[in-house]
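INFO  loader      accepted 1 record
INFO  loader      residues=623
INFO  predictor   begin
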Amino acid sequence: MGVTAVAVNGQSQATVSFTAPISNGGSPITGYTVTSSPGGLRSSGTGSPLTVTGLTYGTAYTFTVVATNEVGSSAASTPSNSVIPTSPNAPVTVPGVPMGVTAVLVNGQSQATVSFTAPASSGGSPITGYTVTSSPGGLTASGTGSPITVTGLTKGISYTFTVIATNSVGSSNPSEASNAVWLRASSNNNGSSSTPTQPTPPTTSESDTTGATVLVNGKLENAGTVKVTNVNSQTVTTIAIDQNKLEDKLAKEGQFAVVTISVDTGSDVVIGELNGQMVSKMELQQAVLEIKTDKASFHMPAQQINIQSILDQVGKSVALQDIKVQIEIAVPRTPVQWVPNESTEGTIAIVVPPLDFTVRALYKDSTIEVTEFKAYVERTIAIPDGVDPNKITTGVVIETDGTLRHVPTKIVLLDGKYYAKVNSLTNSIYSVVWHPLDFKDVELHWAKKSVNDMGSRMVINGIGHGSFNPDQDITRAEFAAILIRGLGLKLKAEASGFSDVDPKSWFASAIGTAFTYNLINGFEDGTFRPNDKITREQAMTIMARAMTITKIEAKPLQNTGQVLNSFTDSGTISNWAESGISDCLKFGLVSGRNNTELAPKAFITRAEVAVIVQRLLQKSDLI
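INFO  predictor   done
INFO  writer      dumping tokens
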């Protein structure tokens, strides 16, 4: 429940407002109790708001709320904002600074909704209003509380927002800036009706550059041509690489060459273009094609393009040099809309404008998109100036239905600029989000950091009301779903074939995806038993299979014999689980329940799962 507090000016009390919980537990709620911190002062009643009295002037307080029904009381809510009651004799000043400012674009409109919490102090005089100001542009909007909507945003510009509070004395200092939001520029359409006309063909203009500069292993080469066009109000820069020049350079450089196309002209769309014969040659030499722009880079091993699969689709009689292969980084051609996932807790803010990464093959009138890869492909997304790199939790794929999918991401500093390094097995539209999450019931738990990190990355979900229940055992279906989210795998519609997995169940697609990637097996009777609790040895076996996807690079800590023999209960490990458990122990993904016991037959807890998934991604250098 959302809890807010306001100090009553000149009195030693505060008014605490809150919303009812999502669930009443199957029994009517009979009352609520508000508790202060510090002091433990309480106030009870049947609904919001409630007033807590007896506060000490000049002391900062927060408040929590519990709901009660005939069964008992709920867990305490997340604490409210902080308030400081002021003495009636205290001098009246301007308010404190509003806090927790976040901005979200209103889909399809040139406006943003800005949310914030009230200042800790009203200055001794009631706050009469708030003003939100955009940067750049200085657009303003006012209101008496949160949220406030700012209109008139210009497409193609990244905005942040600050908030000031005003009372009878004057206005506060501006708050810290919000996250950045960005409204993509699109083709001109004022919404008015008109007589249909023949569409105007896109204007095309070739640049004066006679050749494109390409880097092969960092060495400048004039090995291509540049064409700049304007398509539907987007600037498109295409660099076509010369086959003879490239093959000559590859022959000199040998295996593992990196071919880099760099464009920093601010183009909306950048395309690197080769033919199929060039891609085939690069595959044989295990070369990499890298596209770099001022917004992002795309690190594409030629083997991941899989030119043979493309040839099979267009016809084996087609000459490879007649197939065009394009690798593209683009500002999406139409506005990207997204919606928070139903199970995701907390506030999500898109902090980097979305970018579309595409690999396609062209032959005559046929277009074949390469949407999936057999290994993780790296993209780096530039963090815009003014965006705090500490306020980024993960990269995401924005799916066609607007939902967000976590992809393994870490923030890196390269040549004085911050980037989000994103690894994924698919092509799609990518962005970067700020989604801070702290589960209240892990505050003193040994797995606190891992649980909150995986929650912020949208890999694990809470149980509601800001709680995680870390020591609860986890089911086989829940484990499969968490691992799929952790790896950033796109859910597949294919059925798993297990007789007890209902295609309409919430976990069907996760289990089907895990089965497709050879992460899970069922039982001999054809079942998966999704609602059974999963044992530690079952979980470790699955994690070992996941290591083959992430290509874990950490060095083994010790050999197999030393690993298993160090536990007194190693004899209870099932034969089929020995290899997987050994791998997980060798690479430091798991440890024993204590120094002497592995507990392979014990059920694994939610906290333990958060820890081992985080370790897998960390030791695979993905986060």
